[in-house]
Amino acid sequence: MLQAPPKIDPNGKVSPAATADSDQTLDPSNSRDWSEFRLQAHRMLDDMIGYIENIRERPVWQPIPNEVRAHFQSPAPRQGDELAKVHAEFMREVLPYAQGNVHPGFMGWVNGGGTPVGMVAEMLAAGLNANVGGRNHIPVEVERQVTRWVQELFGFPQGASGLFVTGTSMANLVAVLVARDVALGFEVRSGGVAANPRRLTAYTSTSVHSCVPKAMDIAGLGSDALRLIPTDLGCRIDLAAIAEAIQRDREAGFTPFLVVGTAGTVNAGAIDDLAGLADLCQREKLWFHVDGAFGALAKLAPDLAPKLVGMERADSVAFDFHKWGQAPYDAGFILVRDSEAHKQAFISPAAYLQRAERGLAAGSPWPCDFGPDLSRGFRALKVWFTLKVHGVDALGAVISRCCALARYLEARIAETPELELMAPVELNIVCFRYRTEGPVPESFNLEKSNQANDEIVIRLQESGIVAPSTTKIRGRLAIRAAIVNHRTSKAEIDALVENTLAQGRAL
Ligand SMILES: Cc1ncc(COP(=O)(O)O)c(C=O)c1O
After folding, report:
1. pTM of full prediction above 0.90
2. Strands (E), 99-246
3. Ligand 1 mean position to 293 CA, how many Å?
4. Contact 208, 227 (CB under 8 A)
5. Could you tell me the distance, in angstroms and rounded to a whole number, from the CA of residue 168 to the centre of ligand 1?
């Protein structure tokens, strides 16, 4: 029998060599060990269910003590430890110092709250350990079914293609790449952008999320080729200004190819005139992409869906199920009207990925033909479970309620002279500030106001009661509450107002 050579560890210690007939797998080794594992696994599941059930009793977030941070400096363990001990370490050193987006008081950035159903679906996906890059297995069909649901909900044709990706940053990149290849011809994939004499330009508003210029950069087109068009007072793109910019660029020898509209801007939740953009793209023969990271799912709420009219005419839509869809991270999605163009932008033949009519290699095209990833987890399962268990209407109701809470916060700000609303409330994002100048507006000092509001937000986060974030609106720092979590209620909105006032007065 072939013997593996002995292993020598970094200290020069020779460890017994593994043999090819060794039965040392990483599974529990006998039925007693399996029973112990089962009990321990149930304890771990119970702890996480308890965590979510009792989340309101915890701080939203808390500063991480130095000793806890130092704990994560230890070297890679050469020898393993008991699962129960590592779990205890997780409960002590990891769980209390999470970001806090499960908590109803979390209003920072645009992060979803997750659900118990999504959590257990993730466990099932991990148990199957499916690689959804391709091949002939039902996890691929689950992803295809979710794609058909998205087509139906967004009013897209049945032939449209869809793909789970990490998040909207990646989904926007996929869209830019497909639009680029359609504009330059698919031979650009082998020849490269530099070999093509045409200089592509794209158009979006100044409120665009930073991942779109990044996508232009990664696509080899350069972020400067993305023209940032001014917005109106409602933070929506100025349609006349885009048309002028396109005209100017054509006259200067550029090739306009793409317009990115936003359904729910990251700063203020504004929605571009999507129908107006669809008309413009049709007229100018440009690819129309919608970045709907969180806003696209407002389509599920009957009272909000009319705001998204025009999205159904887009060539592609990027959005996240992990934001308003409440699925656990990560679950980004890209929907593309022309599935053939989508495939031609990514398909990469390789002998070891040969397709077949039957057997495990059947079922082409595979998900890996529609995006950059070959290894892909079973993200679709948590979304499939979320939609099947809760239903589209319940998700729509959560989205409506988040917007109603944003309007409630807007009203509370309006009735509180010490607070000022800084942007119109279109969806679920409220930007406001504490007035440091008191009742005399002439004494307004930009630097003082910005510093004070920044400090208020840090103190709110450190209080563990509520956690908003900040942004800048026309150069002024704003306290930004993004209401995304299905657990958030009026109680947290009131706590935000009362504690902002208390912190502001205490400065
Ligand atoms: C409008 C918009 N686009 C893109 C993104 C990026 O999405 P992700 O963080 O999922 O990559 C966000 C994130 O909040 C966003 O609000």
Report:
1. yes
2. 161-165, 200-205, 226-229
3. 5
4. no
5. 5
